[in-house]
Design a protein that fits this description.
By secondary structure, this protein is of the alpha+beta class. It has a single domain, classed as 3-Layer(aba) Sandwich (Aminopeptidase). About 30% of the residues lie in helices and about 35% in strands. The protein has six helices and ten strands. The strands form two sheets. An eight-stranded mixed sheet has the order 2-3-5-6-7-8-10-9. A two-stranded antiparallel ribbon has the order 1-4. Strand 5 and strand 6 form a beta hairpin. It is globular. The two termini are about 35 Å apart. The structure holds coenzyme A.
């Protein structure tokens, strides 16, 4: 059975955004996203390394990036670039927590170019990614996690129909603020009804 395909392609498309494979020309955007954008403050900022990349690190990153773009892709993608319909990259989606359990996964999303925040594009992209994963895998549940300092993400997740399944209270302290982690999930049958 063929599990991989080589060509970069559009994974799924909506009215205003497409989810597609990474292409080599995305490298400048991806490099810029290391150091700019609101997402740096919202997407687990404690995991970030803020040191500026040195020229040799940038060159290394660029060549690894180009190599990755040429690699075979799994039939069902675990990550994708969010691009406008004019093919401008604006962010990323990913899937995790799926390797050891084919019946469940979590989704991540980040609009990394600030000019495209709050325009409905994140909602459309997350909806497309959710539909794609339910349609192409056998998962029974899809989860999304976010933090209490991100009311916009919470709104988008709830608008799409995810159920609030629980809160890990006072899980982390970050820049003087005590944070809860919020867990959301959607079951296959709930998605089918939506
Ligand atoms: C979270 C994210 C994907 C949402 O995408 P987006 O395109 O910016 O959001 P949309 O325009 O689709 O929708 C935003 C919704 O939140 C609402 N909203 C915006 N700011 C808000 C705030 N401060 N509090 C509550 N709701 C807010 C908007 O009114 C809208 O809801 P509505 O459609 O019911 O009116 C995007 O903002 C993002 O990637 N941010 C940076 C990284 C990040 O937060 N990552 C964590 C994702 S779990």
């Amino acid at each position: 059975m063929r599990d991989f395909q080589t060509k970069s392609q559009v994974v799924t498309a909506g009215k205003r955004v497409i989810l597609r494979d990474t292409i080599s020309s995305d490298v400048e955007s991806c490099l810029r996203w290391f150091s700019t954008g609101e997402h740096l403050l919202l997407d687990a900022p404690w995991e970030r390394n803020y040191t500026t990349l040195q020229p040799e690190q940038i060159e290394k990153y660029k060549s690894a990036f180009a190599e990755r773009c040429e690699q075979d892709k799994p039939d069902v993608r675990g990550n994708a670039i969010i691009a406008t319909t004019a093919n401008l990259p604006i962010g990323t989606v990913n899937r995790y927590g799926h390797k050891d359990n084919p019946y469940s996964c979590n989704l991540g999303i980040s609009i990394q170019d600030d000019a495209y925040l709050n325009k409905g594009l994140g909602t459309e992209a997350l909806q497309l990614w959710l539909n794609y994963q339910f349609s192409n895998t056998q998962v029974l549940r899809i989860g999304v996690e976010t933090w209490s300092f991100n009311p916009r993400a919470i709104r988008v997740i709830e608008n799409i129909g995810f159920k609030h399944e629980g809160t890990l209270r006072n899980l982390r302290k970050w820049e003087g603020q005590i944070l809860d982690k919020l867990l959301f999930g959607l079951l296959r049958e709930e998605w089918e009804q939506l």
